[in-house]
């Protein structure tokens, strides 16, 4: 199973219902999962299960400062431990999230716009 995970860490009024890239990944056969810092523990546990079972994981973090990661913090621990390939794009800026990402010891593509995110995803998907 291939999984695309969209995690939003931003003020509640800016949280989107779905990722703007959801359909691109669905067309490529990915299971899609969306969560934000206020998601309940049941939803978070579903996303963590997807990530642990996946043979390939794409993570899109959409962040704004100074928002705290809330329940999404659990994804960072699983990302650190999971052995499957993980492609990570972090859109926006949040010092706490950037520090957590550095602890993962994985490559992270930092961007500031949706256009840059799309470019990273297109390049990644074309290499598959």
Count of strand segments: 5
Sequence of strands across the biggest β-sheet: 2-1-3-4-5
Query: Mean pLDDT score, rounded?
Result: 92
By CATH, the topology is: Rossmann fold
Please identify the structural class as seen in this structure. alpha/beta
Give me the number of helical elements.
5
CATH architecture: 3-Layer(aba) Sandwich
- Broad CATH class: Alpha Beta
Q: Please compute the radius of gyration using only Cα atoms.
A: 13 Å
End-to-end distance, in Å? Answer: 14 Å
Percent strand: 25-35%
Main beta sheet: 5 strands, parallel
- List unreliable stretches of 5+ residues: none
As a percent range, the share of helical residues equals 25-40%
Helix-strand sequence: EHEHEHEHEH
CATH evolutionary superfamily: Toll/interleukin-1 receptor homology (TIR) domain
- The global form is globular
**Number of separate structural domains:** 1
């Amino acid at each position: 199973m291939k999984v695309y995970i969209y995690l939003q860490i931003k003020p509640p009024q800016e949280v989107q219902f779905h990722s703007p890239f959801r359909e691109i990944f669905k067309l490529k056969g990915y299971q899609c999962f969306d969560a934000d810092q206020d998601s309940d523990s049941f939803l978070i546990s579903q996303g963590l299960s997807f990530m642990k079972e996946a043979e390939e994981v794409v993570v899109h973090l959409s962040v704004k400062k100074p928002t705290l990661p809330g329940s999404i913090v659990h994804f960072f621990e699983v990302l650190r431990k999971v052995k499957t390939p993980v492609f990570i794009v972090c859109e926006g800026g949040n010092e706490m999230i950037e520090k957590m990402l550095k602890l993962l010891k994985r490559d992270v593509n930092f961007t500031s716009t949706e256009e840059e995110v799309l470019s990273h995803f297109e390049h990644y998907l074309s290499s598959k």
